[in-house]
Structure formats: C-alpha cells, structure tokens
Inverse folding.
C-alpha cells in the first residue's frame, strides 16, 4: 500500500503535518502483513479541497485529523 500526502502550501495550511503525524502512528500500529509506504508529494491540483491524500492511486480530498483514522482503516480493509 502506498499513501502520499500533499504538502503543498494549501494542504500544509490545512493541517497536512498533523495528518502525516497521525498516519505515521497508524502505519506503525496497523498490524497488517503487507508494508505501507508513506510519502509526501507536492500539489495535487485540488488546493481548495485539501488536505489531499492519494492511497494506491485513489485521490481522497478534504482529509483532516478528524477523519484520517476512518480513511486509513477503510483503505487497509480494501487491500
């Protein structure tokens, strides 16, 4: 599984650093057999809908610290 978090200006201002911090915690404790690769990317061209996260090529918009746990769990369950 690959997860990319946009760290462009708009997403950064909307809390991308908090989303990354929480994702690091979730990845460390996910307990799945397959590894999760967490990377940063620059602009995903959806600045007004940030934080933007790409999970295995699927773009997820309006990600926040309030919904990242659910998004992560659903992504892990789909694998």
């Amino acid at each position: 599984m690959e997860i990319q978090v946009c760290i462009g200006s708009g997403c950064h201002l909307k809390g991308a650093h908090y989303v990354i911090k929480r994702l690091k915690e979730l990845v460390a404790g996910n307990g799945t057999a397959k590894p999760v690769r967490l990377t940063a990317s620059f602009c995903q061209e959806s600045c007004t809908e940030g934080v933007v996260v790409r999970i295995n090529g699927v773009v997820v918009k309006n990600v926040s610290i309030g919904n990242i746990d659910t998004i992560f769990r659903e992504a892990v369950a789909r694998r």
Observations:
- The domain at 2-78 is CATH 3.40.30.10 (Glutaredoxin).
